[in-house]
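We were asked to recover a plausible sequence for a given structure. The inputs and outputs are reproduced exactly as logged, with field labels preserved.

PROBLEM: sequence recovery
POSITIONS: 90
GIVEN STRUCTURE:
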C-alpha cells in the first residue's frame, strides 16, 4: 500500500457488504420469477418435466447456495470492519 495505510477501508467494506446484500435480493427475485414462469408456462412432455425437475432439484438449490455464501461473506466483512474500527479507535 503506497499511502502508508494499513488495515481495512471500513467504509468500502461496508459498501461491499451492502452490494452483496443487493445481489442476494436480486438472486432471490430471479429464482422466484423463474419458478413462477415455469409454473405458468404451458409446456408439456419429457423435456419440460426434466427441466422443471432440474430447476427445482439442482439449479435453484445452487443459486440458494450462492445467496448463502454472499450473506455469510457480507457478515464477515461487517464484523471485520467493526473490528478494524475498534482497533483504530474510529
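RECOVERED SEQUENCE:
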Amino acid at each position: 500500500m503506497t499511502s502508508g495505510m494499513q488495515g481495512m477501508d471500513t467504509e468500502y467494506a461496508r459498501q461491499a457488504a451492502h452490494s452483496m446484500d443487493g445481489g442476494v435480493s436480486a438472486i432471490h427475485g430471479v429464482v422466484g420469477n423463474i419458478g413462477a414462469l415455469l409454473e405458468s408456462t404451458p409446456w408439456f412432455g419429457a423435456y419440460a418435466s426434466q427441466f422443471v425437475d432440474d430447476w427445482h432439484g439442482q439449479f435453484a438449490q445452487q443459486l440458494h447456495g450462492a445467496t448463502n455464501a454472499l450473506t455469510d461473506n457480507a457478515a464477515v466483512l461487517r464484523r471485520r470492519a467493526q473490528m478494524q474500527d475498534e482497533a483504530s479507535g474510529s
